[in-house]
Specification:
Layout (H helix, E strand, L loop, with lengths): L1 H11 L3 H16 L3 E5 L3 H15 L8 E4 L4 H10 L7 H7 L5 E6 L5 H12 L3 E6 L4 H6 L2 E4 L5 H25 L1 H6 L2
Parallel strand pairs: 1-2, 1-3, 3-4, 4-5
Length: 189
């Protein structure tokens, strides 16, 4: 029960203003015909792949965002890791693929992974919008981003569960918005 109790406490403490800010940034990126990139390590990398799948294909008409998980292309990741550095596995992809109209979402428990920090720095340099979902104390990542959701748990499984809860909440809200608002219906048809 301690796990469920902490998860419930953290859900109740989510800053819905920031969650909705991420939703609006995603919609704005879509309106500009931009791409949304997402990345993380370990369980957060698995979440990145799951989220990219859901938000690319999880809408009524099965057409959603141009959502790309930087954690999904194993040959690219291992090539960059081997030939350049594991610290650059995401930043190199951002250098090549990202444009100013795009959005990068980073998922991190500690906020201190070098490859996440490098991705944020390159995205900032390219003037790509960056939004993070971080836990623990937020780490260096939190200091490099204007926009983030800081879940203050020090439990990695809860941090990763909250990443999925936040993104599933956003997907459900967008689906509701599509039903209610004409301008969104046009965007997603």
């Amino acid at each position: 029960m301690p796990y469920l109790n902490e998860l419930i406490v953290n859900i109740n403490q989510l800053d819905l203003v920031k969650v909705r800010k991420l939703k609006e940034l995603m919609i704005l990126t879509h309106k500009k015909n931009g791409k949304i990139f997402i990345c993380g390590n370990g369980g957060s990398a698995a979440n990145s792949n799951h989220i990219a799948n859901d938000l690319m294909l999880g809408f009524k008409k099965k057409i959603g965002f141009k959502f790309i998980s930087l954690s999904s292309n194993l040959p690219v990741i291992t090539c960059i890791g081997n030939d350049i550095s594991y610290d650059e596995i995401y930043s190199q992809q951002i250098k090549i693929l990202a444009e100013k109209k795009d959005l990068l979402i980073v998922l991190s428990g500690s906020g201190n992974s070098k490859n996440i920090i490098q991705a944020i720095k390159i995205a900032n340099k390219k003037k790509v919008n960056v939004f993070g979902i971080v836990a623990y104390a937020g780490g260096r990542a939190k200091k490099l981003m204007k926009n983030y959701i800081h879940t203050k748990t020090f439990d990695m499984q809860i941090a990763e569960d909250l990443q999925m809860i936040i993104m599933n909440f956003i997907m459900k809200e967008i689906n509701q918005d599509i039903k209610k608002r004409r301008h969104l219906k046009k965007l997603f048809n």
